[in-house]
Amino acid sequence: MRGKSLYIILICIGLILLSACKPGVPSDYIQPDEMEDILYDYYISQGMATVSGPNLDNEDYKRDLYFNAVLKKHHVTRADFDSSLVYYYTRADYFVDI
Description:
By secondary structure, this protein is mainly alpha-helical. The chain has helices at 2-20, 32-49, 59-73, 78-90, 92-97.
């Protein structure tokens, strides 16, 4: 009887440990919730940059300016954003969730 209860306890502990080890986004990258907010603001800013104005020559400048403003708003560097974007592109299952 004692051996059987010990066996059940070990199985329960094993199941708890296995369920706690679910894969996720490494801490080196921007987490999905924050990445979703950044991408939303990014696409809005790119749309704003392409709106026709009196001077169409500075569209690239406006895109870059707005993109930098989005990064500054979210306290993210361009390198962090780029590496996180590459990470999500290579893992489509995470990217679809965003």
